[in-house]
Amino acid sequence: MVLDVVLALVSALECAAEGAGFASGHGGPVGLGIVVGALVGGTLLFRLRWPVAVVLLGIAITPAELGFMLGIVGLYTLAASDVPRRLTVVLAGVSVAGTFLVTFLKFHRDIAAGEGYQPGPWMMLFFSALVALGLTAPPVLLGLYVGARRRLVESLRERADGLERELSLLAERAEERAVWARNEERTRIAREMHDVVAHRVSLMVVHAAALQAVALKDPEKASRNAGLVGDMGRQALTELREMLGVLRTSSEGMVPEASSAADSRRLAEVAAAASARVSAGVGAGGTGGPGPAGEGAASGDGPCLDGLEDLVGQSRAAGMAVELSVEGEERSYGARVESTAYRVVQEALTNVHKHAPGAKAVVRVAHRGEEVALQVENGPSESGADAPRLPSGGNGLVGMRERVSALGGVFVSGATDAGGFRVSAVIPAAAAVEGGVGS
């Protein structure tokens, strides 16, 4: 604004002086010429808002030989503005033609009035064209350059702002994904701890109840049950200590964001090892020691369908009547499919121990062409509705459903007409093997 005011004042003074000379040379009132010239020159103040009007005014006063500065600054502002280029070229051409005509007529008048050197008409045409182009071309070209550069800078600034906004959105999305990943890991770790520990603790409670029942009648069986309870308790404490140790070490030695992936892998390894010990150690403990089947279940990437016999043996050792039925040709599946199938059966049997003590359970496994189907069904509890029940957090069925759904399978659970409960799952055999063990 300060620059526009200064330019308008200088242009008004110039036009006022030229207006006074024009009025005195043509016999007009000098005061009127000064006022008109000052008003015309002052219009330069509005060059940024109405550049076309300023240029048209400059072209209009060209015959009066006014507005030298007004014409140059007006053409520069017009070329640098956002006015269409065609209009700029047309107005610049009109300005060149007007300046050329006025200059040629002035040269001709001055030469005709003088008595010295008399140049030819071609020389006057050359000088007139040189003056017209010299007063018009430089401001127009400079204005075009400045306008193009300004638009380029604005486009780069807009692009930079857009990239900054995009980076901000990406950062927010990354933060959301990190929060989602942490929540997923918490859920997965909780599910692993529930599957690994809850089953064993449930069996401990069942064996403790059996120990209480036979303590006086059969001391030898009571001693054997006490040994089983002690072994299970020690192993459960060891697994809990391993899992909590992973979390404690990572929180003290690493930042949470950097350690989450390593924690997940290590916790998955711990959970897999614990699950393998459940399949091999506890079941074998109920039958006299580790056997080949248990070792086979422990090897590999975690619990698998080969360990179902030992899993059922654990429940039988705890006093449950369990029947295992396998249909179809047995074969190997992906690690996640086998782990999920094992977990479904394990959690279903754990629920029978908790909610239907003394009930008979039937475990059915069907190997089909494109899927493996599982069903665990139990009858009503023989202890009655008033018998004490093991505490439940209500996460078992939810965890089973999440595991099966993550592999694209179908999970159904509900009460039977006979008063028992049924859990069914169908898992695609070709489920993608992604993520960690038991994820």
Automatic annotation (TrEMBL):
Residues 185-250 form the Signal transduction histidine kinase subgroup 3 dimerisation and phosphoacceptor domain. Pfam families: HisKA_3. InterPro entries: HATPase_C_sf, Sensor_HK_TwoCompSys, Sig_transdc_His_kin_sub3_dim/P. It catalyses: ATP + protein L-histidine = ADP + protein N-phospho-L-histidine. Its EC number is 2.7.13.3. CDD domains: HATPase_UhpB-NarQ-NarX-like. GO terms for molecular function: kinase activity. Keywords: ATP-binding, Kinase, Membrane, Nucleotide-binding, Phosphoprotein, Transferase, Transmembrane, Transmembrane helix, Two-component regulatory system. Residues 282-299 have a biased composition (Gly residues). This is histidine kinase. The lineage of its organism: Bacteria, Bacillati, Actinomycetota, Actinomycetes, Kitasatosporales.
